[in-house]
Amino acid sequence: MLKLLETLKDSAESTFDSAASRVENVHRLIGGYVGDQARRVRGRGKPAPERDADENRANIYDVIRGVNREIGEFGTDLFEIIDDARARRHAEKRADSDEGDGR
């Protein structure tokens, strides 16, 4: 059961990271298109290269991905703690059982 939960956590983390990348790409495409159209309407001709806004947007998505990784690492740590506690309980039960047998 614990392995299934950990697999689900890993899948959710991967899906969230992928979704952040896709949203970032959509925002870049829309931002580029709108910026190009606005420059043409104003008569500036050819589209300008990417500006600071794209760099700031990328930084925001880097932060989102970083938070996602931190949450994933926290989940992994939590699963390890749970797994260690289960192993400890199992070992204690085995030791109690061995003592009860007169060994």
In short, what is this structure?
The chain is mainly alpha-helical and 103 residues long.
Keywords for this entry:
103 residues, mainly alpha, 86% helix, rod-shaped
- Tell me the overall shape: rod-shaped
Order of helices and strands: HH
For the terminal residues, how far apart are their CA atoms? 33 Å
Radius of gyration: 26 Å
Helical segment tally? 2
Portion in strands: under 5%
* Helix and strand composition category: mainly alpha
Whole-number mean pLDDT = 79
**Helicity, as a percent range:** over 70%
- DSSP E strands, number: 0
Question: Main sheet, how many strands, which sense, barrel?
Answer: none
Give the total of domains.
1
Topology:
Blueprint: H1 2-41, H2 52-100
Helix pairs in contact: 1-2
Describe the structure.
With 103 residues, the protein is mainly α. The protein has helices at residues 2-41, 52-100. The chain contains two helices and no strands. It is rod-shaped, with a radius of gyration of 26 Å. The two termini are 33 Å apart. 0% of the residues are buried. The mean pLDDT is 79.
